[in-house]
Design goal:
heterodimer, A: 106 residues, mainly beta, 7-stranded mixed beta sheet, B: 120 residues, 4-stranded antiparallel beta sheet, 11 strands, 55% strand
Chain lengths: 106, 120
């Protein structure tokens, strides 16, 4: 099983600041990584797939990078609606696995 | 509008069974892989199972193999998860999700979820 580790667990930032979230896979998953945003009481929403491709309707302030085992989600300037939990997922190997999440809080 | 609506959750005793359903609309259901993902209270996301467009391939996380069965009815635009021998640790919100692209198993559309509670 590919273990996916996210860091930090919590990121405390202010609106307008830049957020950098990390995701590490226990072995290479090529570029087969997706990022999701989840707000309390809501379903997850796809932000990024293929490590760097924004999903439909996702603002340009969200960007993804990386390949192999190291991946990054960057939010260039935090808006109030961006405070949420973010998950990365690898889909290169079965079973599909998610990281434990990073909470971005004010 | 692309939509997934889950139903069938509830309270069940350990060892019991439950069948979840997911009604799909707004897209050509029989051209997409589909998935179930769960989230235990206060925890992260856990992939449960995937099924191919025609139902000929299924994949499961080890913890549910032999107990859960994913299936679909393309004529009804419906996805199912038959759960048996339920355990307390199966308690979670279960999400139905569409797989974004063939053999690219990210989830691009999610339902709102249905809650399963396993308790005596």
């Amino acid at each position: 099983e590919v273990v996916v580790t996210q860091s930090p667990a919590t990121l405390s930032l202010s609106p307008g600041e830049r957020a950098t979230l990390s995701c590490r896979a226990s072995r290479s998953v090529l570029s087969n990584v997706a990022w999701y945003q989840q707000k309390p009481g809501q379903a997850p929403r796809l932000l990024i797939y293929g490590a760097s491709t924004r999903a439909t309707g996702i603002p340009a302030r969200f960007s993804g990078s990386g390949s192999g085992t190291e991946f990054t989600l960057t939010i260039s300037s935090l808006q109030s609606e961006d405070f949420a939990v973010y998950y990365c997922q690898q889909y290169n190997n079965w079973p599909l696995t998610f990281g434990g999440g990073t909470k971005v809080e004010i | 509008e692309v939509q997934l609506v889950e139903s069938g959750g509830g309270l069940v005793q350990p060892g019991g069974s439950l069948r979840l359903s997911c009604a799909a609309s707004g897209f050509t259901f029989n051209t997409y892989w589909m998935s179930w993902v769960r989230q235990a209270p206060g925890r992260g996301l856990e992939w449960v199972a995937n099924i191919r467009q025609d139902g000929s391939e299924q994949y499961y996380v080890d913890s549910v193999k032999g107990r859960f069965t994913i299936s679909r009815d393309n004529a009804k635009n419906a996805l199912y998860l038959q759960m048996s021998s339920l355990r307390v640790e199966d308690t979670a919100v279960y999400y139905c999700a569409r797989i974004g692209r063939i053999y690219q198993y990210y989830m691009d559309v999610w339902g709102k979820g249905t809650t399963v509670s396993v308790s005596s």
